[in-house]
Amino acid sequence: MRHGHWACVGFERNAQYAAYIAHALEKKKAHDDDDDDDEHVPLPANFNRHVVRVIAALWTHLKPIYRMGWVHRDTTPIPQRVFQALHRIVTLAGLLSLVMRLDQHSVYHFEPMFKEEAFDADRMDCYNMDAMQQRNPRTPLDAVSEAEQVRRARLSAAEKARARMDRPLTQMVLMAGVRAYRRGGWETPSSTAEAPVYETPQYQRQGVRSRMLTHGWVYCRWGRTQDVRDGRAGLSGCEKMHGDAWRGGFVNFTDVEGVPDWMARERQARREETTVADTGKRMA
Fold this sequence. Notes:
By secondary structure, the protein is α+β, with helices and mostly antiparallel strands. It has helices spanning 2-31, 47-66, 80-101, 129-135, 146-153, 157-163, 238-242, 262-283; strands at residues 106-111, 124-126, 167-175, 177-183, 208-214, 216-223, 227-229, 232-234.
């Protein structure tokens, strides 16, 4: 009952958000004197500015790749054909996001996915699936490519035996999956998000339905997960567990130069606060 109560609260809150956004957009539409179209949903006042800002952020990451191998220097901020392609993608994403936020009937959840978790075909699509199938240590030798046969021939018998216990793991998370939730039972074919119609009246508040709209997109590898004990990474037996794939250590995000370890700083700050509080008590 408690779980159901909070689920209802979530749906009600989502409906209130959607109603508020729709009201704000309608107020904007009422103030647009040159807008005679009563059908379309008005855009937020700063929509185009946000699109350009997102494009600029994307170009910051794409520019080194785009210019890789160029002999001459490109003096334009963003090449026109690249800007147009990004503008279409970002604008469509913005419009889709707006439509999702205006949906009072559905709750959209971006399912979190993490590096080094086991690959789950029900939630994920593997970007390098062909390579993963070739590298599957349990695939017979006559079912793989010639290049894979050559690679396996270089492995020791011990490494081949060890690799048979490897699992498909997520090495990079490219995009989270999206799942939609709706409250109530089955709806009629004529039902819409704006005006849901249920097969029977009592279905309106019975149960919760969900549908995976898009799987997460991940890049995978064969191997073993990092050994974690008591909340900390352990490196015991790594050479035996990871075999030829072991290169001396895992590199976590906070190990990269310039990335602060915020959790360690917070733990240290809490310890210092506790020490000061204990000292104050003793002095009192």
